[in-house]
Design brief:
about 575 residues, ABC transporter transmembrane region fold, Rossmann fold, 2 domains, 5-stranded parallel sheet, 4-stranded mixed sheet, about 10% strand, elongated, transmembrane helix, ABC_transporter-like_ATP-bd, ATP binding, ATP hydrolysis activity
């Protein structure tokens, strides 16, 4: 092998290697598709494959492969140029030395340009993939009310927010790292094995001379080290999976304290919260120590192998150098080739810890996507018909286990009717309201009729306030933020003291009191003008005079609106012409 031959053949080598590498990756993908790993990877990645952008995606992948191959080729040429550099030093040829020094300087400049462009292309690929993946995950999580239905699953996926944000990001980066490392390792193994094969001679061990023995010795050494490393580190897969789960649980508990700070303060619940948080944190620490104990063995073994491997190639080539069969340049190229080959063969050994984290994220994302698939495939029986009013005939509900909660519910509501649902706590008032509204996640039976294409508004006991300005929060989800009557109804609902803050961003869910949040709910009624409104104890935090004013105004302003209310106060009867008691069942 000669440096000029290697330099001249670089372009042909690049095209040929790219072709066989692409073919090999395609065949490998087909084979992996049938394995558990491949099935999980495909389930996560397949929604991101868009036919309209398929050519661009394939182009980016090919460009990434080109940059990986160029990095290997630069290392190969670098080893030959350094061989000439050190050989010219040994032979004291100044002209040859400066020539090879210039070649190495030019190669360094090319490597800098390669590094910059490689980083740019890689980031473009990762960002585009992450954008598509995040879009798909959010769309599937929000569609069909999966974000709501998933709360009722037996094995609820933990920390969904972490899976959508952190796990997805790390999965994309980890996949590119894994492919980059594997492809670079594979090509490096082939290229630098050829170089070492040319540099190696007879290796004498215990009086036995082995042709090209140094190459065989290196392979046996590194493969043995890799096998032992994998065996030592195998338990890290489960430990790292658990680490992500415990960390997410602890963050969620901290967020709950922040979101419920006022209630905790009134209860003087600091001691109990501290115990709870400490329990969550102790689980993280115990898992951390388990990882540390396992990593002590793994890191110690890897460090020993790496340090020993630094001197091994010189020891193997020293007899040939002292016998005059190898030059100083050959010795340096042997060290370079050996180190690159060792790094390539040791890829899985050195990458094993990151791979365990990658596999843990793969499993977490797979569990999440699989659960969404199951929810999409579940056919919830909701016999809702289209009509002029709300009518229930022999209507009933079942829980998640299929057991009957309510049955034989019969009622009829026309435009302008107002129904008050009452009954003891736990009787199923809110559940019945959800079923009529069409958001009950389990099976219903009997006959249920609702107006066709009705404008429906559901207001829970604690109305939701999204992030953003107060104007955006009040007008959630689809009211015009610049509605001409917004300030008017803020005054009528006794929230005029917040008019000046309409365009201020803040955590309004936490700032507004429960009573103020319920007044926001009535503003939404006035601005939305729904055909049907569901009020789930929406006045429980209001004083009776305010409750009277707000109910009277919606009955006056929206006389044809159908109202379904849940409440315990007797003062609500005057605003409803019908009452349904889950204990007495009278209409």
């Amino acid at each position: 092998m000669h440096w000029q031959t290697e330099l001249n053949d670089s372009f042909t080598w690049l095209l040929t290697t790219l072709f066989w590498l692409s073919l090999g990756l395609f065949c490998t993908a087909l084979l992996l598709r049938k394995t558990p790993f491949g099935e999980k990877f495909w389930l996560i990645s397949q929604p991101c494959v868009n036919n309209s952008h398929l050519i661009k995606t394939l182009g980016l992948i090919l460009l990434l492969l080109v940059f990986i191959l160029l990095e290997v080729r630069i290392s190969v040429l670098n080893s030959f140029f350094y061989n000439g550099l050190y050989s010219s030093l040994q032979d004291k040829k100044a002209d040859a030395f400066w020539f090879f020094a210039l070649l190495n300087a030019m190669l360094v400049g090319f490597k800098i340009i390669h590094s910059i462009l490689n980083y740019l292309v890689r980031q473009v690929f990762e960002i585009r993939w992450l954008e598509k993946m995040n879009e798909q995950m959010l769309e599937r999580w929000l569609q069909n009310k999966n974000y709501y239905r998933i709360k009722y699953e037996k094995d609820l996926p933990d920390n969904i927010d972490q899976r959508i944000e952190q796990d997805a990001k790390e999965f994309v980066t980890g996949t590119v790292d894994l492919l980059d490392g594997m492809i670079g390792a594979l090509v490096s193994i082939i290229e630098f094995t050829i170089i070492l094969w040319g540099l190696s001679g007879l290796l004498s061990l215990f009086g036995i001379e082995i042709p090209k023995g140094a190459v065989f010795f290196i392979y046996i050494f590194i493969i043995t080290a890799t096998t032992l490393s994998v065996w030592i580190g195998y338990p890290l897969i489960k430990l790292n999976y658990t680490k992500e789960k415990y960390a997410g649980n602890y963050r969620y508990s901290l967020i709950r304290v922040r979101d419920n700070a006022e209630s905790i303060a009134f209860y003087d619940g600091e001691k109990q919260e501290h115990i709870h948080l400490k329990t969550k944190f102790n689980a993280i620490i115990e898992n951390r120590w388990a990882i540390v104990r396992r990593m002590l063995g793994l890191d110690g073994f890897n460090t020993g192998v790496t340090q020993f491997a630094m001197i091994l190639p010189l020891m193997l080539q020293a007899p040939r150098f002292f016998a005059g069969l190898a030059t100083l340049g050959d010795m340096h190229q042997t060290v370079q080739a050996f180190n690159r080959l060792m790094r390539a063969l040791s890829f899985f050994r050195l990458f094993y810890e990151q791979f365990t984290l990658y596999q843990a994220r793969l499993n977490r994302l797979y569990d999440f996507m699989l659960r969404l698939d199951q929810l999409d495939n579940q056919q919830i029986i909701q016999p809702i018909e289209c009509g002029l009013g709300i009518r229930l005939k022999d209507f009933g509900l079942k829980d998640q286990h299929g057991e009957v909660l309510l049955q034989q519910v019969n009622l009829a509501l026309n435009a302008g009717d107002a129904l008050l649902i009452q009954g003891p706590s736990g009787a199923g008032k809110t559940t019945l309201l959800k079923a009529i509204a069409g958001i009950y996640p389990f099976e219903t039976f009997g006959y249920c009729e609702r107006p066709c294409n009705a404008n429906v508004l559901f207001l829970p006991q604690r109305p939701y306030m999204p992030q953003g300005t107060l104007r955006q929060a009040i007008c959630y989800p689809n009211i015009d933020p610049h509605h001409t009557d917004l300030e008017l109804y803020m005054e009528k609902c006794r929230l005029s003291n917040y008019i000046h803050a309409l365009d201020q961003e803040n955590d309004w869910q936490a700032i507004l009191s429960p009573g103020e949040l319920q007044r926001v709910a009535f503003i939404r009624i006035f601005l939305t003008k729904p055909n049907i409104v569901f009020l789930d104890e929406t006045t429980s935090a209001l004083d009776e005079p305010t409750e009277y004013i707000l109910y009277r105004k919606i009955r006056e302003k929206l006389p044809n609106m159908i109202v379904l209310s849940i409440g315990h106060r007797g003062t609500l009867h005057q605003f409803h012409n019908k009452v349904f008691d889950l204990g007495i069942c009278r209409i």
